[in-house]
Specification:
Pfam families: AA_permease. Keywords: Amino-acid transport, Membrane, Transmembrane, Transmembrane helix, Transport. This is Amino acid permease/ SLC12A domain-containing protein. 57% of the residues lie in helices and 0% in strands. It is mostly helical. Helix 1 runs antiparallel to helix 2. The radius of gyration is 23 Å and the shape is flat. The two termini are 31 Å apart. The model has no long low-confidence stretch (mean pLDDT 84).
């Protein structure tokens, strides 16, 4: 949005965690993949011995995904990993909404929620 000089106020929904939620998610997912790789290489109960057979049995998903990704790149002949921020289309398929009306409705909902009890607010938040 910043790259195309657009404001986040144009969006009807903005993530509560923002960019930090995305950073946390990618770091956590990389951590999970590293741990999965490590446990596939040295499975529990193998007494620290690596086995190629066990590794490919436990980590086959990564091999399959890599093969399909490479096949897609060969078939489509597009070797760029991602698009530049200037080329991303932010408007196609977007619903036109009255942002002022939506903001007003959100403010009314916040005021109504403040008048409700703590238990009702927690129930609405989690359910």
């Amino acid at each position: 949005m910043k790259k195309q000089n657009r404001s986040l106020d144009e969006l009807t929904f903005v993530s509560f965690t923002g960019i930090w939620g995305s950073i946390y998610s990618i770091v956590f997912l990389i951590f999970v993949l590293v741990v999965q790789f490590w446990t596939a290489l040295f499975p529990i109960g193998s007494k620290g011995k690596a086995s190629a057979e066990n590794f490919f049995q436990n980590y086959l998903g990564a091999v399959v995904i890599s093969v399909f990704y490479l096949a897609h790149k060969l078939y489509s002949r597009r070797w760029r990993i991602w698009k530049s921020l200037d080329d991303i289309d932010l408007d196609t398929g977007r619903r036109n909404a009255d942002l002022d009306l939506i903001k007003m409705e959100l403010e009314e909902e916040k005021l109504a929620n403040k008048q409700k009890s703590f238990l009702v607010r927690m129930f609405k938040y989690w359910c």
